[in-house]
Amino acid sequence: MSTATESPTSALTNNGDWKSQLNIPQKDDRPQTEDVTATKGLEWEDMQLRRELLMGIFEAGFEKPSPIQEEAIPVALTTRDVLARAKNGTGKTAAFIIPSLQLIDTAIPKVQVMLLVPTRELALQTSQVCKLLGKHLGVNVMVTTGGTTLKDDIMRLSEAVHVLVGTPGRILDLAGKGVADLSKCTIFVMDEADKLLSPEFTPVIEELLGFLPENRQVMLFSATFPMIVKDFKLKHMRSPYEINLMDELTLRGVTQYYAFVEERQKVHCLNTLFSKLQINQSIIFCNSTNRVELLAKKITELGYSCFYSHAKMLQAHRNRVFHDFRNGACRNLVCSDLLTRGIDIQAVNVVINFDFPKNSETYLHRIGRSGRFGHLGLAINLITYEDRFNLYRIEQELGTEIQPIPQTIDKNLYVAPSGGGSSEPQTSTGRLGSQALPPKQDTRLTHRAPQQPRLPPQVQPAPGTPTSQAQQTPQQQQQQQATQVYATTPNGPPRNGLTPVQQQQMLAAQQAQQAQQQQQLFALQQQQQQQQQQQQQQQQRIAQQYQNAQATAMAQQQQAAAMIAAARGQGHPARGGRGGFGRGQPQPR
């Protein structure tokens, strides 16, 4: 069962110098923005929290409360309803988990806190934070989502569970079957509340509230609150305390750029960005699941490590990708909008919108995956001619300005001075030569762009994007050539731990593998041709049998007709021979 660790010994909690005995992680010296530093000066000890809870907070590396935590936690501890709006990555998750853990009575072996989230990945992450902060409290935390067997959840609920984290559909299923007893669940929290109150979730939320007691506490947290949240507040919340820390919508630590490219040049532009930026970890967003897989394949072909994730994958595969990427097993993750909400990976310092989003809400959540908790981040948007109006509209709605990408991006904008990013740009394995690969035109990722479109104001081509030589000045041609030259040569130092000889051996092995695959493909094609020939022969035999049957039936019909005609021609002699009426006259009546 997914449970938190039991409480520590009382000797530690009763010791006056208890804080010095904790396993506190090393202090994060990276600079932070005012999104998390503009506080009132409160300390964790000022909030009258349990000693065991404070121990979990400090061991999680939480040094001081962020602004949203300063505002929300004291109010939530009074059991008043809370409606909080704050930027992505400013500590909203801890703002509702800490008061929820404080109010739990571990002597009651029933669900007392329900945390609803819209996605399975966010449910897993939220449950991990609950276990981390409450590991000294002795609380039991359970996470349940769709895509897993219901039998396992039923077995885990047979034991004591204090905090239930999950997606609405699965929790409603458990409550409807009488497996999850929610009669003592007095704290109801919705993270990413705007998504949970969308039309696809609203009926489930309404039905789920019927299983909770009347004296429940409701808390809603999100970065965006549409009008539908107002309807829910009037219907299900009692004079909630409203918190709005969104003086501006975008994070101050995230620098935003756009690169104007044609659709067929996006992969080449992405390749240039990989070779020039100092990426620690990056998330690349696409607008469809098909393009996610295709782009991940193209990135892998270019020689860069890459994972991908989208909603159509098996849940076990999604969990593995999320876990490995979070632990640093891969540098790049291509995904759909599945991971736009709540996912907190501190190592991500670059977000790339390979496909520009259609609305400002999606854009805001996407770029919020970088610059977590006041740190620095970079957001780059690849803009086509058709995206120019969406770019202008999103700028107006968010009240921000997205600058055209410069030829050189200052690393101090997205790399921490203490070395938060990688020391060198990304390099790909198995690539030889000093010239960049030419832009490959993959029809699956290519759409016909307008010929020489008129650029909107302030739209500049991306660095490294090939344009017509006739339109380029000599200086632009030199800059384009500079972006296509990699930092190392075949005879230079080893790249990714491989010498030029080893790279050639790897290339030869890849070529041999490709030749073997081509032979297998040729054999498969021959087998398919033989099967087609057999099918054609069988069809010919069936057609011949059908023709023979038709000929036999026709002969039988002709023979029967001849017999009938012969019988009619004989007639009776007394009636004048043929016809029996004598000389063709009608028979008198």
Automatic annotation (TrEMBL):
Biased composition (Polar residues): 1-24, 423-432
Gene3D superfamilies attached to this UniProt entry: P-loop containing nucleotide triphosphate hydrolases
Catalytic activity: ATP + H2O = ADP + phosphate + H(+)
A cellular component term, taken from the record's GO annotations: P-body
EC class (word): hydrolase
Domain called Helicase ATP-binding: residue spans: 73-243
EC number(s) per entry: 3.6.4.13
Main location: cytoplasm
Residue ranges of every copy of the Helicase C-terminal domain listed in the record: 253-413
Ranges where the record places region Disordered: 1-35, 413-499, 556-589
UniProt entry tagged with the keyword Ligase: no
Amino acid composition bias (Gly residues), ranges on this chain: 574-583
Residues annotated as domain DEAD-box RNA helicase Q: 42-70
Motif Q motif in this chain: 42-70
Residue runs in coiled coils: 507-541
Location(s) in or outside the cell: Cytoplasm, P-body
Low complexity bias spans: 465-490, 556-573
An individual GO BP term: mRNA processing
Protein's recorded name: RNA helicase
The organism of origin for this protein: Tulasnella calospora MUT 4182
